[in-house]
Amino acid sequence: MKSKNKQINILYFVVLIAGIVAVAGIGYFGYLAVTNPSRTQPIAVGEGSENTDVALEGSDETPVPASEVDTYTVNADAPRILKIDSLGISAKVRPMGVNSAGAVQAPVNIHDGGWYTGSSKPGAYGAMFIDGHASGTTRQGLFAYLDTMQNGNTMTIERGDGEILTYKVVHVETVSKDAVDMNKALKVYGDAKEGLNLMTCTGKWIEREKTYDNRVVVYTQRVS
Q1: Where are the domains of the chain?
Q2: What is the DSSP string of 34-45?
Q3: How far is CA 21 from the centre of its chain?
Q4: Stretch 172-196: mean pLDDT, rounded?
Q5: Percentage of residues in the chain having pLDDT higher than 90
Q6: Is the pTM of this model over 0.70?
Q7: Per residue in 198-209, pLDDT tens?
Q8: Residue 174 contacts by C-beta under 8 Å, 6 or more apart in sequence?
């Protein structure tokens, strides 16, 4: 009798654990569906990107000629060119997935922007997320002056099909690198339906970690 009760208890425990896992899984995939309705599963390492090696991120400081930006091609509904006139930016936007460390990838070239493919596409509901480098080893990167952006500044995204979307800055914040809230960074700021959020490093250089101590996040909302 004791043996039978023990078997029943073990079976109950297994069923309970399976139920907990199932509920957690549903919650996680539900969260993905809310933040990006077009995606129903986690981004795989390296999905949509040319590189997964963290060490290569930001290793290329080669200037990108305007002719290369002009002829750059992507899928029709993907972001192609990011322009921020106030910062003199006109840059390619490359698709980024998740790197080997499990973090959102950053571009290999410090003059490119990186669109996280787990975020929204331009023109779709939700927030598009683009990261970039403030600097390389010897020169400034694409987002060297991103921390100077102010509310009301505008920027545009050109899609692969040529459609141009305009966004207005509504919030800028600088936080410790260890306090970055990626859930927030992947959502539209305020009550708008569409947004574009940008992020880069800023602050003081930490030599032992080979990174800056802060991150600046610029939140925008689509205006046209």
Answers
A1: 1-35, 45-222
A2: HH-TT--SPPPB
A3: 27
A4: 96
A5: 70
A6: yes
A7: 999 999 999 988
A8: 147, 202, 203, 214, 215, 216, 217
